[in-house]
UniProtKB/TrEMBL annotation:
Transmembrane segments: none annotated. Residues 11-168 form the NAD(P)-binding domain. This is Nucleoside-diphosphate sugar epimerase. It holds the Pfam family NAD_binding_10. It comes from the Bacteria. It comes from Vibrio inusitatus NBRC 102082. InterPro entries: NAD(P)-bd_dom (IPR016040), NAD(P)-bd_dom_sf (IPR036291).
Length: 223
């Protein structure tokens, strides 16, 4: 990836998506950013073009014949917010996979997807199983490179209030120093660190077509 990089991002209204959008807009190597979202983002930048649509998987594919080379998907929900397992799956699996397909058709070569630690189609947890199913579907789209971000609990300034998450983050501040080895992957991580790691991934030459990036790897990248 060189100068004049063009990017398409879906989910820029969420915690990681918002931080990632800020990061790529500030990067001098990025010339254009297309944001796919259901509502307008309160952010102005000469590089930013917003496509507002109720169906993120089928946007108007018109951007002055621009073909984005990098795609970023930061879509996801929780069971509590979705209201049912079926609705959670519709977002975390179907919407993400369909959006990835749209980006593939736009010409994206390198796709970065925000997933989660423990994603596995055989997991006992419905949430982790959905993430695993999503990853399998996205892998099947045959991008040149796919990077799945597997962060631990996310910390940062959410626009929505999640009491249970705030309590967990408070507890983890005391537990994190005791974590060693692979347990460090379960430590809370700032959304901005994930965003900065994504920015670095965009310009890295990945020998493997598919990679999964854990909290420890993210922190090494941004150190």
């Amino acid at each position: 990836m060189t100068l004049n990089t063009s990017i398409v991002i879906a989910g820029a209204t969420g915690l990681v998506g918002r931080e990632t959008l800020k990061a790529v807009l500030k990067d001098y190597r990025v010339s254009k950013v297309i944001s796919l979202s259901r509502r307008k983002i309160e952010m102005e930048d000469s590089k930013l073009e917003q496509w507002i649509t109720n169906d993120l998987s089928k946007p108007e594919l018109q951007a002055n014949n621009l073909t984005p080379s990098v795609g970023i998907i930061a879509l996801g929900t929780t069971l509590k917010k979705a209201g049912s397992k079926e609705k959670l799956r519709a977002i975390d699996v179907d919407l993400v996979a369909n959006t990835a397909k749209t980006m593939r058709e736009m010409g994206v070569k390198h796709l970065v997807v925000i997933s989660c630690l423990g994603a596995n189609p055989k997991a006992l947890s419905h949430y982790l199983r959905c993430k695993g199913d999503m990853e399998n579907l996205v892998e099947g789209l045959n991008f040149d490179n796919v990077s799945f971000m597997h962060p631990g609990p996310l910390a940062g300034d959410r626009h929505e209030h999640r009491t249970d998450e705030k309590l967990l983050q408070g507890m983890m501040r005391f537990v994190t120093p005791l974590m060693i080895g692979k347990l460090r992957n379960y430590a809370p991580i700032e959304a901005n660190d994930v965003a900065q790691a994504i920015l670095k991934l965009m310009y890295m030459h990945n020998k493997k077509p598919v990679s999964r990036v854990t909290t420890q790897q993210i922190l090494k990248m941004v150190a």
